[in-house]
């Protein structure tokens, strides 16, 4: 294992009915901004539970945070927090709402153009932040137990990541009952998101991290095992809980400890969302298999381990096992009714590879991935393979 | 999964040479008590590294904390901390030194007979504690990343556990290089300790916790895989790191989330240490297999899963698989040169079962274990099987 530092102070409150514990976890006397998305929480009862549990606090609501949250939308919330002297943020939603609230946390006390927090990485150095907690409504991104976030500037279609140890939620409430009311599309997205997060930290090169590899494999096995069942029966709270906890564990910092990580799939895929508005998880399903194909030689040892341990492939040469493992991955995505070609999502896609090339070049991304090899040209070729 | 809450704020600093980071992790200007054990750190260079790294602080040393740390010894350190107004404790040692420092943390500001902290569970309610960090010198107990501890009152041979969320270390430095200088006996003890910690949270009944089971199995697999190699070559820092991280992960709170736990092996085994002074890990190796045999019917589903997944046993009835799995466990302990019978450690052992019966009865321990079935009589029978 490589050297590492790890500290994750988020308190997880897991289980059915746990939303009632909000009041004891928000600091007494706080003025609270309750942030949420498109309003599905008003249909599935979560909104009512949150309002009931926080009635002893002064609450200001801010709804309408969109998927891939926009800087422009979030700045409206920043103004409200400043005007009303709000001192605690409660994110009620999935990764987009939570990521958005991490931006709010950073931006409220920032003196300057708030986009600098993201574009110039100023968020990491921002000392005065607004504390926040979350009620997770969609298992997928892991944002509920990590300190990273992604926001998009709609005006320029720039999708950017930021983070820092000050952006861990104070607490996150994980109630598996929320899965019951999710559209199948979002459940499938959540499974693919968690699966790909795991792969980004696992499918690199052989580095002899016995335990870290096996923990990653635990999450992959669990997701594969529960995926068809939870799609079929999202109201099964046991399965929903396994799904929820797997998604959290996939990106709470444990998998990355002491191991090389890739993340090139994510960086390419973010551009597909920015350019075509495709769901984040689906862009991962489009890019990941082709990135594995393109970098098969570099990743061969781990592809073989993945094929053997996860998919039980025992026959064939290393290359054949690797190929089969990639095909199994694609079939897994298809089994969740997730298409894996860009042309199945976008009509005018022919210039996408060139645009990704230009965007990588503009930002001087010459060496992403565990071997620092994925630059504009490789990204372009991977996108072309994904048409 | 059952409902749970989880928060673990300990910062882990892992890797070779990380002791040098002490100064940036101890609060500036602290008056520090440096606590350690029998002095092995003066031979293996750790003492010198710690002294070098903390030279900007006012340090008071307190050596001589024994294995299964004694209340009586620790109270001497409490007096020194009070006299010198020390405000930070640095534990340099294994689980005994770290557990001892958790007691110091609790006792310094306690007003009353300090044994009440342990015997009457007052530690959990103690608000004013002294912050502490650790430099781990012996992978085994997981105390470096949890908030529990065990101390012994020598006068009465009472070995007691206590804990509370205020007893997480502020930080723990895990340098795998420390394993190189450990006696084989201590490496073997550490492996068995971590293995049994995992089993206490895994080998219960089938509760459908896919992910939690698989993470526990990850640790068991890793320990089995590295055990002979790390015994053979403790200077291999890669193997030592896997061992160290496995021991930490085995008892940092993650395995217990949402699952039933047993811990009856530990509670019986503690009495063997109290009565006969046998190494903690060795008492676990004596008791665990017989507890599994005695409770085979209750644990059959998990014994079979354990046998199949960990030991690859595919043939036979459920009962045969369970029996073989227990035998494999015993063989694993023997492969580490750890005896598994009480008579191999103690001469006058014939009254042990009766004494354990009485001790369980005195403390009204009528229902330990995942089914709350292990009381004085079962404990007695398990100890008798262990002669």
TrEMBL record, chains A, B:
Domain Fe-containing alcohol dehydrogenase-like C-terminal: 188-356
Domain Alcohol dehydrogenase iron-type/glycerol dehydrogenase GldA: 9-176
Example of a GO MF term: alcohol dehydrogenase (NADP+) activity
GO annotation, cellular component aspect: cytosol
Keywords: Oxidoreductase
InterPro entries: ADH_Fe/GldA (IPR001670), ADH_Fe_C (IPR056798), ADH_Fe_CS (IPR018211), BDH-like (IPR044731)
Family matches, as Pfam families: ADH_Fe_C, Fe-ADH
SUPFAM superfamilies: Dehydroquinate synthase-like (SSF56796)
Source domain of life: Bacteria
Similarity comment: family membership: Belongs to the iron-containing alcohol dehydrogenase family.
Protein name: Iron-containing alcohol dehydrogenase
């Amino acid at each position: 294992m490589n050297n590492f530092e790890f500290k994750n102070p988020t308190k997880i409150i897991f289980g059915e009915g746990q939303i009632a514990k909000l009041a004891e976890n928000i600091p007494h006397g706080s003025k609270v901004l309750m942030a949420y998305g498109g309003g599905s929480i008003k249909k599935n009862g979560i909104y009512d539970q949150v309002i009931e549990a926080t009635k002893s606090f002064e609450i200001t609501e801010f709804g309408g945070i969109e998927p891939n949250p926009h800087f422009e939308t979030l700045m409206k919330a920043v103004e409200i927090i400043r005007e009303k002297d709000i001192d605690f943020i409660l994110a009620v939603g999935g990764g987009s709402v939570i990521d958005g609230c991490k931006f709010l946390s950073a931006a409220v006390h920032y003196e300057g153009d708030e986009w600098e927090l993201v574009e110039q990485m100023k968020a990491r150095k921002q000392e005065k932040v607004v504390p926040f907690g979350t009620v997770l409504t969609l298992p997928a991104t892991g944002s509920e137990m990590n300190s990273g976030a992604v926001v998009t500037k709609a005006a320029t279609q720039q999708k950017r990541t930021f983070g820092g140890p000050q952006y861990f939620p104070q607490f996150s409430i994980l109630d598996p009952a929320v899965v019951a009311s999710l559209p199948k599309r979002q459940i499938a997205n959540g499974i693919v998101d968690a699966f790909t997060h795991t792969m980004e930290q696992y499918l690199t090169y052989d580095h002899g991290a016995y335990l870290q590899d096996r923990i990653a494999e635990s999450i992959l096995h669990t997701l594969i095992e529960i995926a068809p069942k939870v799609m079929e029966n999202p109201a099964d709270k046991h399965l929903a809980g396994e799904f929820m906890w797997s998604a959290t564990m996939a990106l709470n910092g444990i998998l990355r400890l002491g191991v090389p990580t890739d993340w090139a799939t994510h960086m390419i895929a973010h551009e597909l969302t920015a350019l075509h508005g495709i769901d984040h998880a689906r862009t991962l399903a489009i890019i990941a298999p082709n990135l594995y194909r393109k970098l098969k030689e570099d990743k061969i040892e781990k592809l073989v381990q993945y094929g053997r341990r996860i998919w039980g492939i025992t026959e064939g040469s290393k290359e054949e096992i690797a190929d089969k493992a990639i095909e199994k991955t694609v079939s897994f995505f298809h089994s969740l009714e997730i298409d894996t070609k860009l042309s199945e999502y976008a009509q005018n896609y022919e210039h996408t590879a060139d645009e990704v090339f230009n965007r990588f070049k503009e930002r001087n991304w010459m060496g992403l991935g565990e071997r620092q090899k994925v630059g504009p040209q490789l990204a372009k070729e991977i996108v072309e393979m994904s048409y």
